[in-house]
Design a protein that fits this description.
- This is Pentapeptide repeat protein.
- InterPro entries: Pectin_lyase_fold/virulence.
- With about 280 residues, the protein is of the alpha/beta class.
- It has four helices and 15 strands.
- The radius of gyration is 21 Å and the shape is elongated.
- The N and C termini lie far apart (about 50 Å).
Amino acid sequence: MDYTWRIDFTDSKFSDIDMNSIKSSDNIGFWDCKIRDVYIVESRLGEIKVHPGTSIDNLYIRNVDFDNFSSSGLVLTNSYVRGVNFGINLFNNMFAKVDNCEFFNLKMFGGGARIFGDIQNSKISGKLHGVKFSENEDHTQCQNLDLSEALVPQCSFTGVDMRRIKCKSEWEHLIVEDWYQYKPRLIEKSEQLLASSDKDDKAAGSVIIGSIQRDEEAYGSELDEKRGSAYIRSVVSSALRKPIKNVFWIHTLLLESLCFRNETFLCESNSSYKAPF
């Protein structure tokens, strides 16, 4: 008879763990644990729950399936993650901090959650869908983050200076330098839309103003020259659940405002521009 054990570790330290081609259905939880030097490949594991206060350093994990994996407040450093399915039930602050890590060919469906509390000096390739990145108090969110081999549909980078990120060529044309300069024009146009009798105009205006306010909240103050570059997809991300006409209006408004300033931005007249929806 096969047994499934429920094992919880609290305030423990583990090191030099080597798991190759392991099959286990045990359910394991970690609370306030320090784990380092872990090698797990080609394995099938049960339910793993990582709770706040736990850190993992020097993890190498490749082609591992879990019955269920969840974490909250995990600190992950100096690690390599490949072929791991994190599932779709992801929550805010799944990783409290990620530093000097590589996620290879990642498929992550964030559903608008802020999965990475802070991520720096790392690389992600694959597809991030609906993951929210928000500026941190130290203004170091996404510092030296390489996304040059990643697609980021429905992702947002609220308050984050995109100059810190190495972007993929397919979406780097949506990066706008000196973002703060566009705020007055966008506010003006949004207020005009809000005054319209058309409900779609009102919705578009409300989304733009709300998105700018959220960007300022994440940044920590009104937009200024230190805000740096912005990803305009972040400005419209909150409109995705609205009718597609609203999203079209918002992109049109953004392009009009950006081209109005005569900046070297790829707009509708440039064949390389593609709306990200």
